[in-house]
């Protein structure tokens, strides 16, 4: 009877392990999301490029911040895509590819968390900077009121504090593992 339990247990464990492949369609969905973000980036670039000669310096800076914001979101997407797939589904067998980023295969779950929160803080900071630059300039009623601005700052600071606390927890965890 013990042999049956071991056989059932082994099959169950193999099934559980194989279930990680249920994540693969989600990563393929992220590839589609990256393509969507690329289309939005190109659309924004074409829009702003056509206005380059009539833009003020502030408008140019806002346009650039918008493009940087989209790029950071795409970077975040790639980090989740590659690191998540390698950490939770399967290793990417790209050792012979000279273009393989150095960080691939080396970002563990803790590193992934830190990269994610850093990207979120950067995206939030850029969005907040864009709003700050628009203060007093929006004549079409799109101006952010004081309450909205306060909440945006609070949310950004919450992201920053979350990042600091995650880093502290990782540091404490690494320190206790050494001792």
TrEMBL record:
Q: Which organism is it from?
A: Aliigemmobacter aestuarii
Checking Pfam families in the record gives:
UPF0114
Q: What is this protein called?
A: UPF0114 protein E7811_04435
The record's annotation in PANTHER family points to: UPF0114 PROTEIN YQHA
Family membership: Belongs to the UPF0114 family.
Report TM segments. Answer: 21-41, 61-82, 112-129, 149-172
Compartments, as annotated in UniProt:
Cell membrane
The annotated topology with respect to the bilayer is: Multi-pass membrane protein
- Recorded coiled-coil stretches: none
Give the keywords, sorted.
Cell membrane, Membrane, Transmembrane, Transmembrane helix
Q: Which GO terms describe its cellular component?
A: plasma membrane
């Amino acid at each position: 009877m013990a042999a049956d339990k071991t056989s059932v247990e082994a099959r169950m464990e193999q099934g559980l392990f194989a279930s990680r492949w249920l994540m693969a369609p989600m990563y393929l969905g992220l590839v589609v999301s990256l393509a969507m973000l690329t289309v939005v980036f190109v659309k924004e670039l074409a829009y702003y490029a056509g206005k380059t000669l009539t833009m003020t310096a502030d408008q140019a800076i806002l346009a650039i911040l918008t493009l940087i914001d989209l790029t950071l979101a795409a970077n975040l997407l790639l980090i989740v895509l590659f690191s998540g797939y390698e950490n939770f589904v399967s290793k990417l067998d790209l050792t012979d590819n000279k273009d393989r980023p150095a960080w691939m295969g080396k970002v563990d779950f803790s590193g992934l968390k830190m990269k994610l929160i850093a990207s979120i803080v950067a995206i939030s900071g850029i969005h907040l900077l864009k709003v700050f630059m628009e203060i007093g300039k929006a004549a079409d009623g799109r101006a952010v009121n004081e309450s909205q601005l306060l909440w945006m700052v609070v949310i950004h600071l919450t992201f920053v504090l979350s990042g600091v606390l995650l880093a502290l927890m990782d540091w404490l965890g690494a320190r206790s593992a050494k001792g």
